[in-house]
Amino acid sequence: MRIVIVDDSGLRATVLEDGLREAGYDDIQLVPPLGAWVAKLERMAPDVVLMDLGSPSRDSLEEMLAVSRALARPIAMFVDQSDDQMIGAAIDAGVSAYVVDGLRKERVKPILDLAIRRFNAFARMQADLDEARSALADRKTIDRAKALLMKSRDLPEPEAYALLRSTAMNQGRKIVEVAEALITAHSLLGGTE
Amino acid sequence: MSGPTPISIAFLPLTDSAPLIAAREKGFAAEAGFDLSLHRATSWATVRDMLVYGQVQGAHMLAPLAIAVTLGLSQHPAALSAPFKLNLNGNALAMSTEFAAALDPDPAKRIADPEGAAHDFAAAIGLHRRKPVVGIVHRYSSHALMLRYWLGYAGVDPDRDLALRVLPPSLMVEALRSGEIDGFIAGEPWSSVAVAAGLAEIVAVGSRIWRRGVEKVLAFRTDWMEGHAGMVDRFLGAMARAAAWCDDPAHHGELAALLARASYVGQPAATILPALEGRLLLRPGTAPVAIDDFMIFDREAANFPWRSQALWIYSQLVRWRMVEKDETIERRAADVFRSDVYRRALAGSDVPMPGASMKVEGAIATPTGVGSHSGALTLGPDRFFDGRVFDPHNIEAYLAGLSAK
């Protein structure tokens, strides 16, 4: 069974591909939706196409499915239309699947289940990554503010940090907000770091 | 009542989403007791699935797509209903500067003479270095049907003589820039964005192909709509007020600024405004050209879903072999346009209410008073550019006339 993953996020495609390979599927192709990707996909004659539900490329794909003679008269979405729970899970996860008509649903269901789990895992990973990125950015801002205090007030590092923290606590704000305010004020006053 | 009723509606970033955005931002939904949330999607497939699978209650939708989904032509079949049209017209065909060079040198003349322009376009196809690739937003898009109608007049078979490429409206300009397509027909502001970027010229507009062409509808799932009649009636009341607000020229500046927000259309207000005002920049670096009735949100009972308009769409689907000619299918197509729900919802309001639910399309040459149950109703010219008239009671003869050309 040939599975094609259409995705412009290379990372998510890899996460999904890894999962499918672990589950024993070995004919998996990745197609980024760029250039003449629809023609490429058509040549690959996939049995299942997995893609992001919100992908702008779905209209192009569906048009190909409507006019193509290369693919066996296609293709339904979400496998088993009677399985509302699965449809809901797929939509919540943002998975859309196009399946060649005639493929038995018992064969497709595990693929879709897996895609839903991996899409969800990817979304969580993305959220964690965003959080880590913003934590890192906060860290940098606080470091800059600390350096300003150390320089202008001639404080050692632990005291500079303690001053930021106590100011934040007194004002009921986050340390990073106080740090940002300090950096802004400093630059408005014409200071250099 | 305990707090506002939540209702969520999916939309695509297009100028004709305006009545929904005005309903939210100008308080019409809130006044009617709704907490309206708007969900932007990029592709029509996503909007369709959100509606069909119940992620939203309503959708901004291409009128032919609502019919196609109901007829089972676009993935999972689901009965949809359109009790309210969001607008008439508002789309434009933009072609690359290179392709447009083979047409009449005066861009205003192309718009004013769609018959001549269709023949010129047909000739330009042969002169082009490849089979022209024209972007359409969906197989079942209002403007794809208009493009087909316009070119069909000049003997062009779009399935044979053009490569029609489906892309969401917001990706058209990039596709044109990269040379993937030679032009596209889409709802505004995207053609104006392509002209502003210096990539294209507007060579035809929907409102000069069919003066009162059907464009987007507000679509619900039929079972949901039937089960929430009171809520639907109240919401259509809010939509009627929002549409009237959008149609008022005094509000166009403010409306353009609302639409320009990143969460809605996300393009500069200066690029959105011309379609609202009916003054379009057709070619980069020239003066804008006035095109009256370019886009209509409300006047002349524009929101009324004439069943004859659904049937015109059906006739075009038959013509282009997208659906077979069949009386049951014809009936189901007409039933998507729920003039009965519109009547029920807006009875007793000051919205003019047509006396009939079917009319001959394309027969009005000058503004004409028509029978109405409330308020004076004048319908403006609704002619097709080729002068053909669509009698919904005689689709067979209409189709025979089209194929005899």
Topology:
The complex is a heterodimer of chains A (193) and B (405).
Chain A: E1 3-6, H1 10-22, E2 28-31, H2 37-44, E3 48-52, H3 58-67, E4 76-77, H4 84-93, E5 95-99, H5 105-152, H6 157-171, H7 175-188
Parallel strand pairs in A: 1-2, 1-3
Antiparallel strand pairs in A: 3-5, 4-5
Helix pairs in contact in A: 1-5, 4-5, 5-6, 5-7, 6-7
Chain B: E1 5-11, H1 18-25, H2 28-31, E2 34-40, H3 44-52, E3 58-62, H4 63-70, E4 80-85, E5 88-89, E6 91-96, H5 97-100, H6 107-112, H7 114-127, E7 133-136, H8 142-153, H9 158-161, E8 163-166, H10 172-177, E9 183-187, H11 190-196, E10 200-205, H12 206-209, E11 216-221, H13 222-227, H14 229-247, H15 252-260, H16 269-277, E12 279-280, E13 289-290, E14 295-296, H17 307-319, H18 327-336, H19 339-346, E15 353-354, E16 368-370, E17 372-374, E18 377-379, H20 395-404
Parallel strand pairs in B: 1-2, 1-3, 7-8, 7-9
Antiparallel strand pairs in B: 3-11, 4-11, 5-14, 6-9, 6-10, 12-13, 15-17, 16-18
Structure overview:
The complex is a heterodimer of chains A (193) and B (405). Chain A is α/β, with parallel strands linked by helices and 193 residues long. Chain A folds into 2 domains: 3-127, D-Maltodextrin-Binding Protein, domain 2; 133-188, Orthogonal Bundle (Arc Repressor Mutant, subunit A), CATH 1.10.10. Helix content of chain A is 61%, strand content 10%. Chain A is built from 7 helices and 5 strands, in the order E-H-E-H-E-H-E-H-E-H-H-H. Chain A has helices at residues 10-22, 37-44, 58-67, 84-93, 105-152, 157-171, 175-188, and strands at 3-6, 28-31, 48-52, 76-77, 95-99. Chain A has a 5-stranded mixed β-sheet, with helices on both faces. The radius of gyration of chain A is 26 Å and the shape is elongated. Chain B has 3 domains: 5-88 and 214-265 and 296-306 and 322-346, D-Maltodextrin-Binding Protein, domain 2; 89-212 and 270-295, 3-Layer(aba) Sandwich (D-Maltodextrin-Binding Protein, domain 2), CATH 3.40.190; 353-404, no CATH class. Helices cover 42% and strands 19% of the residues of chain B. Chain B contains 20 helices and 18 strands. In chain B, the strands form 6 sheets. A 5-stranded mixed β-sheet of chain B has the order 2-1-3-11-4, sandwiched between helices. Chain B has a 5-stranded mixed β-sheet with strand order 8-7-9-6-10, sandwiched between helices. Chain B has a two-stranded antiparallel sheet with strand order 5-14. In chain B, helix 4 (63-70) crosses helix 18, helix 14 (229-247) crosses helix 19 (339-346) and helix 17 crosses helix 20 (395-404). The chains are: A alpha/beta (193), B alpha/beta (405). The A-B interface holds A 35, 53-60, 62-63, 66, 76-78, 81, 87-88, 91, 96 and B 41-46, 49-50, 53, 55, 74-76, 137-139, 165-168, 170-171, 180.
